[in-house]
Amino acid sequence: MNAGDALFLFFSLALVLSALMVVLSPNAVVSALYLVLVFLFTAGLYILLQAFFLALLQVLVYAGAIMVLFLFVMMVLDLRKPCRWWDGNLPALMGGPLVGLAFGAAVWATLRRTVWPEATSETLFRGDLAAVVTPLFSRFLLPVEIIALLLLVATIGVVVLTRREDHP
Amino acid sequence: MSMPSPEQLTWFLLFAPLVATVGILLFTRRRPMASAVLSIAAVSLSFVAAVKLFLVVASGAVVSIPPHIWLAAGPLIVEWGGVVDRLSVLMLLVVTGVGTAIQVYSVGYMRGDSGVPRYFSLMSFFTFSMLGIVLAPNFIQMFIFWELVGVSSTLLIGFWFERPAAAAAGVKAFIVNRVGDAGMILGILMVWGYAGSFDFAVLAGKWQGLGLSPVILAAAAGLIFCGAAGKSAQIPLHVWLPDAMEGPTPVSALIHAATMVAAGVYMVCRVAWLMAASPAMMTVIAWTGGLTALMAALIAVTQTDIKRVLAYSTLSQLGYMMLAAGLGGTTEAMFHLTTHAFFKALLFLAAGSVIMALHHEQGIWRMGGLWKRMPLTFIAFLIGALALSGIWPFSGFYSKDEILFLALEQSRGLLVIGLVTAFLTAFYMGRILWVVFFGEPRDGVLYGHARESSMVIILPLGILAVLSVAGGWYSVVPHFLNPGLVAAVPSDKIMAGFLAVPLIGFLLAWRVYGKAPTDDAVLRRILGPVYRWMENKFYFDEMYGWLVDSVQDTIALVCETFDRWILQGVGVGGISGITRGLGGVVRVIQSGDLRFYLFMAGAGVVALLFWWMRL
Amino acid sequence: MIIGLDHYLAVSAILFGLGLTCILMRRDLLLILMGLEMNLNAANLALVAFSRYGRGADGQVLTLFVIAIAAAEAAVGLAIVVALFKNRRSVNADDFRSLKG
Hints:
The complex is a heterotrimer.
Chain A: H1 3-24, H2 28-48, H3 52-77, H4 90-113, H5 129-133, H6 141-161
Helix pairs in contact in A: 1-2, 2-3
Chain B: H1 6-27, H2 32-58, E1 63-64, E2 68-73, E3 76-80, E4 83-84, H3 86-109, H4 116-135, H5 139-157, H6 164-195, H7 200-206, H8 214-231, H9 240-243, H10 249-258, H11 263-270, H12 272-276, H13 279-302, H14 306-326, H15 330-357, H16 375-389, H17 395-410, H18 412-437, H19 444-449, H20 455-470, H21 476-481, H22 492-513, H23 521-527, H24 529-535, H25 540-586, H26 594-612
Antiparallel strand pairs in B: 1-4, 2-3
Chain C: H1 5-25, H2 29-53, H3 58-88
């Protein structure tokens, strides 16, 4: 077992454990902090996959921006009463894991059946910055523009949604 | 600058009025004068272009405008083009020339009306549509402009839409024309079905050679003629034209006397090959025209509204044209169409001048002695009346003469009808002349206010008067239409006979109305019950009313029963019942529970995954 | 053992399944949104793995787009949660049942 494999095992085990904690922890804030961990370990896996730029973005956008937004909203909302998951009704408690497990089983079976083409070290894609970003400004220019527009719309939508009622 | 080609001239001529319409609607909606100038400029430029085209065609040159394919779907090929030949150029001249005179006149007539920009935009739009009919080289293009003409005509009849009668008249014109146009489009489809083309030139070459049975030939010609009968107000689709007089008088002059109602005659001449293929249909057309001419003349004798008399006389003259077309006399029909456009426009405009002077009074029994007050209008009306009655040497004499001569050669029955109509025409025109312009004033107040109209009114009258006098001399029009024509000149005896008939009519009118009576009592006494039939327009409107009432109400009752019990009960009720029942079942799932929805969505995705992957 | 594509895909699948479980099991609207983020993250992981072993940049470019959209989605979703909280003083999904048919 070389160092890469060891790192993969560590990252993926930690990732799964953190994700499990997100699901199980009674407190939303704790869940959010575990989610940060999930994102960080995913970034680790990205690095193992030689996607350095994405790993960076993952930390910046997910862990840095999105999760901060989550925590910020939790602070603002001032949630007195945590809604614990084991308070719900039994069918709902059973249904979630059941569907999750069924999904996992489906993917597992699919993976078992699929034969992937042999990958050698020469054919692996090295995701350096130029290789990832160049398509953004050529082939995917229009989608990039559309995404920019989408972000603008989302910004406006958020402003409208959270506007105070007494100041129309 | 080089001379524009005939093709460019054609398109310019067609689209200049449309540009004026759009320009008025977009830019000068609040400026009456600017709208009038724009509209008149467009139509007079079109007139200049028409004159140029006329010179080109008259010099013997053949103008061909290659058609563009507009729509092609399998065997259905619709083209867009223009046809410039002697027939269409003559019609272009009439439409733009008379149109220019009438639009100038409108400036005076419509002064002070709040809708002047709308009026001129509609006039321009009408001109555009009418030119489109004239230039159309195929059935589809003609039908499109045919309908556009119908629309603009309806809008102009209902121009004073705040008056219920005007609005109703517009609707009536539209509906009656629909009846004719329904036949026309069926005829177009039939022709296409058998010959596979819409193009006049192509069809003219192969229609006779298709070897179709006489019934089919007659049906195709008859259906197409339905459209012509609707537009040209032939029996039994004539009922809309008298009501159309609710529109402004210049509109009546341009659309319902000079140009649009002539479109039916023009089309019958344009598709003469189609009509000629069915001798039976030709007879029907000729007799329809003859009966229309006679019946309208009879009605005109009894009408007391000056514009309605002119309207019925228009019907009558259109009947003459159809009669000629039905006898195969395309040239004669177009000749009479041209002269009629001149003198009928003149008559309407002169009548409009009288109506204006009398503050929109149209009843002839409140007029009288007006020749002293408005001598110029009187002279114009007199010229128009003489031309209409067919007195030598006015234009109407020549054109009517040719039609009567045609009838003399081919059908004694139609000749008698034509002569009686000519007599009646002279009689009712004499009646109008004596009642309106001679005798004592019957309404002192109206008479006291009557003044001669302004120059902008008189000038178009003068131009049209000159044309009405000279339009028939030397048979310019027939020779232009048919350069190889060797006119069979009727003998002097026949000519004298044709001339004597209207003179007798005038004399009789003088005998009856020369002593300044105050109503139609004399005529009423002589004719007795017949007079009441004539006065009530032979009860056509009542008959249609009864027909619609009885037939339509029966059909409506059946439909209502069907609708209520079958459609509403079984159809709608069944569908809504099923939907309601199913909804009742499904609404159980619609619990409003967000997480339940999520669960269903997630489970659905996973189930799909299993299914797709064949797990 | 050689770590290959299927290992990464397995991790991605587990992460997705846990995200799905989170969405379905938790009653807190915020947790439902977090579960959504986990799902997107799982998809991203799969895309990057495919990009690595499929010899192309497209997977990574797509991941970029997903990240951008996830940011927008999180912002809008949180704004809706805030608006809901202002109206009902609650973020419990079970409290919002007014769409009952």
